[in-house]
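User: Fold this; tokens only.

Assistant: Input:
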Amino acid sequence: MDYELMMNGNVKIGQMAPDFTAQTTFGEVNLKDYKGKWLVFFSHPGDFTPVCTTEMIAFTQAQSYFKDINTELLGLSVDSNSSHLAWVYDIYCRTGIKISFPIIADRNSQIARKYGMISSDVSNTETVRNVFVIDDKGIIRTILIYPLNIGRFIPEIIRIVKALQTADCAKGATAANWMPNQPVILPIPNTFDGLLERVEYINKNKNGINWYLSFKEIPKECIK
């Protein structure tokens, strides 16, 4: 499987995230280091580039929000570790902002190709703006891909992590435009008796439009 992933970058939602060990601006990192935490693992096309610089600053400024939901950040590009260090130092010198998460130096593109971060139709060397949300069990839960010239919207990435965590905890789903602490959608009944119970539930609580779409408040233990 690892060979297939490395050749095809064929990662999918629901599978275990491919393991790796890598050199970063914070020293050596292994994917297993993040066990028990959620991880936003993202790639950027290159150091000392304008859009990427704004993203690194934005991720750093939002890191406390990620920490609050048990989520770590990990960046990657095919630049060298020395280049990464020079770049983050330049950002620090010019803005006073310390990039507060590791950036992987993937010079041989081994990790980038394993995760499908390089789109040959765009570039054979630069990584596009991939985002992988990996849960606390090491499973890939979301994959986002942005083009080279469009920066990521960090609040949406935070919302996605919160939505996944809430849906897991509350055993439900989230509606279009869902925002944290809003009700979740109940699973659809799979028996006729369950359908009748759901209709009675909706009539009593006025919290749905029919048996196939109804809501419930988030349990207190699921609110973060």
